[in-house]
């Protein structure tokens, strides 16, 4: 293996988290491939300038996310991608730092197609008065940002809007998706809006349907937003 590793030890703080991130980004980017065995603990500790304690804690973090497994006399091996916990918040944060293939954006959009239209329908049925007020505040911010486009402000407002949809479902199993996916929403929107596209019309249709309590209309409006070409993706 010829992968280069950063000397983390110079940072001095939160070494285990930094080591975990360094290894995770290399795994997510494919620099360290699935099924590949990492260099030995002494070698990596020397290259990254950290203690064995910090290194072992980092490996535990990766193990908890299904990214690696360690065996005596074999070492630490990168697990098959099917075992990775892609809904782990920290793993999603690491993904933001990785140059991602379009295939991953397609996979995330497929997940959204499966769950977000239903979340919109439920929000139309179940959103409380307070949640509708909060969603209105977020949507008004989206309109303002769309008229005076700033990418960072749009991504933040867009992520809040979609998170509010999941929170407003009244379903305890949907709510965590809104929280967990907040990071990856921003990562996805960073890609899909980097040329200035905001799809404010589709978001308005979703918002108005939810406010009117029209669940089928909200469902279909959300589906309309999910067309691949609206996210700079090829069919």
Automatic annotation (TrEMBL):
<keyword id="KW-0804">Transcription</keyword>
<dbReference type="InterPro" id="IPR036388">
    <property type="entry name" value="WH-like_DNA-bd_sf"/>
</dbReference>
<dbReference type="GO" id="GO:0003700">
    <property type="term" value="F:DNA-binding transcription factor activity"/>
</dbReference>
<feature type="domain" description="HTH gntR-type">
    <location>
        <begin position="13"/>
        <end position="81"/>
    </location>
</feature>
<dbReference type="Pfam" id="PF00392">
    <property type="entry name" value="GntR"/>
</dbReference>
<dbReference type="InterPro" id="IPR011711">
    <property type="entry name" value="GntR_C"/>
</dbReference>
<keyword id="KW-0805">Transcription regulation</keyword>
<dbReference type="GO" id="GO:0003677">
    <property type="term" value="F:DNA binding"/>
</dbReference>
<dbReference type="InterPro" id="IPR036390">
    <property type="entry name" value="WH_DNA-bd_sf"/>
</dbReference>
<dbReference type="Pfam" id="PF07729">
    <property type="entry name" value="FCD"/>
</dbReference>
<keyword id="KW-0238">DNA-binding</keyword>
<protein>
    <submittedName>
        <fullName>DNA-binding FadR family transcriptional regulator</fullName>
    </submittedName>
</protein>
<dbReference type="InterPro" id="IPR008920">
    <property type="entry name" value="TF_FadR/GntR_C"/>
</dbReference>
<dbReference type="InterPro" id="IPR000524">
    <property type="entry name" value="Tscrpt_reg_HTH_GntR"/>
</dbReference>
């Amino acid at each position: 293996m010829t992968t280069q590793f950063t000397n983390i030890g110079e940072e001095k703080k939160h070494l285990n988290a930094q080591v975990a991130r360094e290894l995770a980004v290399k795994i997510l980017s494919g620099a360290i491939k699935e099924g590949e065995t990492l260099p030995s603990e002494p070698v990596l500790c020397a290259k990254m300038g950290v203690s064995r304690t910090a290194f072992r804690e980092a490996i535990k973090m990766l193990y908890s996310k299904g990214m690696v497994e360690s065996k005596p006399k074999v070492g630490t091996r990168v697990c098959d991608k099917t075992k990775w916990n892609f809904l782990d918040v920290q793993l999603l944060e690491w993904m933001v730092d990785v140059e991602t293939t379009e295939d991953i954006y397609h996979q995330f959009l497929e997940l959204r197609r499966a769950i977000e239209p239903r979340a919109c329908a439920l929000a139309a049925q179940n959103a409380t008065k307070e949640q509708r007020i909060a969603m209105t505040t977020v949507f008004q911010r989206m309109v303002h940002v769309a008229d005076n486009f700033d990418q960072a402000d749009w991504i933040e407002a867009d992520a809040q809007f979609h998170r509010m949809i999941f929170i407003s479902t009244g379903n305890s199993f949907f709510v965590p998706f809104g929280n967990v996916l907040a990071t990856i929403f921003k990562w996805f929107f960073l890609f899909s809006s980097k040329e200035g596209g905001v799809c404010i019309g589709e978001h308005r249709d979703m918002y108005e349907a939810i406010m009117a309590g029209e669940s089928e209309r909200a469902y279909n409006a959300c589906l309309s937003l999910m067309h691949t070409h609206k996210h700079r993706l090829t069919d």
